[in-house]
């Protein structure tokens, strides 16, 4: 039986990845957190492609893209992101990466570099992919498309708690500002902006628990 291809897009910290992971487990399909890939490239740039003033050297990054190998490995049930065989799953959640990732993600070279591998993963079906442009650009023919949104205060609270649970120091006001800036850059960029696909189902989960959001999504998928 063919398994569904599901696209989950939406604003930062609406729970896209953690929700997608649970749905993937329930449906026995693969989960790809595409934000982690953009974060991985940003981490690489921060380590290897800096100008003397500490800013990212974009040209340097573009010419180094072919040295980047990103892969997820299953580590006792947790998907762990490896950059050139090194576990970077904690580093990609750092404040430094969050502050720079939207600048990196708006670059055509970077988006082109990641596009084909994302598409090929969906060719056989049975995948849930979360990001910003999955329903609009990466998988426009997905069987199901969802677009998640929530109030900025609720999203700030979730992101702040996530950082604390990872042992990363953060200030709530800074977390909020980062979410606002990222959403603005992501929505206004020229290539593959953060946008609701015309045929996406919108879920505002401000007042929903994670479990309720998952149930809502599954209620649309159950008859597949
Ligand atoms: O999902 P997450 O918040 O980890 O994504 C980090 C950043 O990666 C986003 O703010 C956005 O700039 C970029 N991104 C993107 N396209 C995707 C997924 C993430 O541009 N499909």
Automatic annotation (TrEMBL):
Catalytic activity entry: CMP + ATP = CDP + ADP; dCMP + ATP = dCDP + ADP
InterPro entries (alphabetical): Cytidylate_kin (IPR003136), Cytidylate_kinase_dom (IPR011994), P-loop_NTPase (IPR027417)
The enzyme's E.C. designation: 2.7.4.25
Repressor as UniProt keyword: no
Domain Cytidylate kinase: 6-222
Any GO molecular function: ATP binding
A GO cellular component entry from the record: cytosol
Pfam annotation, one family: Cytidylate_kin
UniProt xrefs under Gene3D superfamilies: P-loop containing nucleotide triphosphate hydrolases
Family indicated by similarity: Belongs to the cytidylate kinase family. Type 1 subfamily.
Protein's name according to its UniProt entry: Cytidylate kinase
Species of provenance: Chryseobacterium limigenitum
Gene this protein is translated from: cmk
